[in-house]
Design a protein that fits this description.
Belongs to the universal ribosomal protein uL10 family. The protein has seven helices and 15 strands. By secondary structure, the protein is of the alpha+beta class. The chain has two domains: 122 residues, Ribosomal protein L10, N-terminal RNA-binding domain (Alpha-Beta Plaits), CATH 3.30.70.1730; 79 residues, Molybdopterin biosynthesis moea protein, domain 2 (Alpha-Beta Complex), CATH 3.90.105.20.
Length: 244
């Protein structure tokens, strides 16, 4: 009896496995940077968005190299213990590679890097699971995107084709001369709410960016001065300057 074609399992995706070769390449690249760049920073991220990280990489591409992710492999490259470290003090850098963090190798002056990241922040749309930092209310009346100028002439009105989507998300709306109107005040979220997928969709439709992408420098290392921790996160989630 001929074999049925319907019994065949067809893979629709191809995923490259992380081989020893790719890990070895990353280790070599990290170690090469130790001799190529004067300064090494450990940083953590809040509300990471890959497009913004790409912008930062582009900004510093002339004199820097940023590694993000693969913490365990980067730690191996630096050396996890005093006996394994490639240079003095690097095992302390390796110990900090936990959670959403990365390494920045650079020939830029230390003070310039600190100033840049101290001032750098970009507002972004929240994702499901994020906590709402404040209450967001959509007032009754004509619906417009909120991230543009406030004067009536320059408001970006939400097109009528969006009305079915807004209704599906729980908003009471109707069309008036091709413009969507909200029939009653709608509370999207309250301060401290853990946002659902539907809430984040509504916030995006209305242009409400609730979270901020930030990079925090945790420590610095150089061959001349060794390892220096900038900030220490303590149990109550406050930060204090390291006294060492």
């Amino acid at each position: 009896m001929p074999k049925s074609k319907r019994d065949k399992i067809v893979s629709l995706t191809k995923v490259k496995k992380k081989t020893k070769e790719t890990k070895g390449k990353l280790i070599d690249e990290v170690r090469e940077c130790l001799s190529k760049y004067n300064n090494l920073f450990v940083f953590s991220t809040a509300n990471l968005r890959s497009n913004i990280l790409i912008k930062i990489r582009q900004h510093f591409k002339q004199n820097s190299r940023i590694f993000y992710g693969r913490n365990s492999v980067m730690a191996v490259a630096l050396g996890k213990t005093p006996e394994q470290e490639v240079e003095n003090g690097l095992y302390q850098v390796a110990q900090m590679l936990k959670g959403p963090c990365g390494l920045m190798f650079t020939n830029e002056k230390k003070d310039n890097i600190c100033k840049f990241f101290d001032e750098f922040a970009e507002e972004e749309f929240a994702r499901a699971g994020d906590l709402a930092p404040f209450e967001v209310v959509i007032p009754a009346g004509p619906v417009h995107v909120d991230d543009v100028e406030d004067d009536e002439e320059h408001k970006k009105w939400v097109t009528g084709s969006f009305e079915p989507q807004l209704r599906k998300l729980g908003l009471q709306t109707h069309l008036n001369n091709g413009k969507i109107e909200l029939l009653e005040r709608f509370v999207v979220c309250k301060e401290g709410d853990r946002l659902s997928s539907d809430q984040t969709k509504i916030l995006r439709h209305f242009g409400r960016r609730l979270v901020e992408f930030r990079i925090t420098l945790l420590a610095h290392w150089s061959k001349k001065k060794g390892f220096k921790r900038f900030k220490e996160v303590i149990d109550d989630n406050t930060e204090k300057m390291d006294e060492n």
